[in-house]
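Re-running the complex after MR caught last week's input typo. The corrected sequence lines follow. Everything else is unchanged.
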Amino acid sequence: MRVQRGMPGLLDTDHVLRTIARDLAGRFTGVFTPETVERYVFESYTALARTAKVTTHLPALTARFAADRLTALAQAKGAAPHDVPEVLFVCVQNAGRSQMAASLLNRRAAGRVHVRSAGSAPAEAIHPAVVAAMAEVDIDLAEEFPKPLTDDVVRAADVVITMGCGDACPIYPGKRYEDWTLDDPADASIEEARRIRDNIDDHVRELLTELELSP
Amino acid sequence: MRVQRGMPGLLDTDHVLRTIARDLAGRFTGVFTPETVERYVFESYTALARTAKVTTHLPALTARFAADRLTALAQAKGAAPHDVPEVLFVCVQNAGRSQMAASLLNRRAAGRVHVRSAGSAPAEAIHPAVVAAMAEVDIDLAEEFPKPLTDDVVRAADVVITMGCGDACPIYPGKRYEDWTLDDPADASIEEARRIRDNIDDHVRELLTELELSP
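Corrected-run output:
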């Protein structure tokens, strides 16, 4: 039986997270209490730590994830700008389909929509073939990471697009839902990843037309 | 492309969750704002919906999960009783090992500790062989369910015991950590599940001795 006590080196993480929370609390003054922001930072960290393989950048990813969730929550309560449609892509792992769709829509919409993505069971990292296939069309996914689906981002969305995650996506009234049938690029070859990428791009262009934002 | 709009039947879930939040807000008056409680209820629902297969009882499970998380958070901030040691068991799926350990410790401790369990990647349901093996020692797991690991329950714990979840468990200073090496009862036969159960029970009795609460 291994018994560890104290682990003083890890005091650092706690300290870093509190610093992140303090910074974010400043950004959300008058919208959320410092306690709410700190809760979001700590829960976001734990949620990412549950699945992320490489934990070196976890505090930095936590800062981005928590900031985005708080922004979504502020939008949902009318306390942050919501000038363009919010589109949320949800797949199982947030490591392939939803990441490709988000980045392709983001580029094609050029500011006319805001895009988020999440997974019902996030993977450890984005699939390498997906990263490679997107790099071929000059989209860099190096800064992206799989994130669990949270209530706040669903609540902030105007359009929710699911891809193979079945019933795992909570459904709220008043939103537009679509389900795209796509192959899964997990363990795909680069050729398969390219084909899925182009298929997703067709759907993205169709979506822009439906949203009356012609590509 | 399937397009669904409105889904009026699901208005019900939103309404049920708001009712749960109102009830819980009453229980935590003076400790948490109604907004914090509502956030916990909605995020707890989404977290369970991500992985749960059977969604019929999801609002009822959400109410229990959110209440327990809020209690943990209140304990961590000194606003709820913390009279006995809090022990948290963490495995990957919260569907076998950590459920068995929690229920065995709960029975042996007979009120001298408080026990929680969670998983880094929760399964859809508790493994059938585990339910059967526990039923043989008169422990009914019918009311239990796999829950994701959250910051609040780690924060409230005095003792964190991990079982095969590797680095997924966030570590806080000042706690006692143990890692138990156990076989995984996923897909186990009833004979294997019994052996794992008895092995866990040995660890549980040892833990009670270490905590100076002899079995």
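None of the earlier attempt is carried over here. The two ends of chain B are 60 Å apart (CA to CA). DSSP finds seven helices and five strands in chain B.
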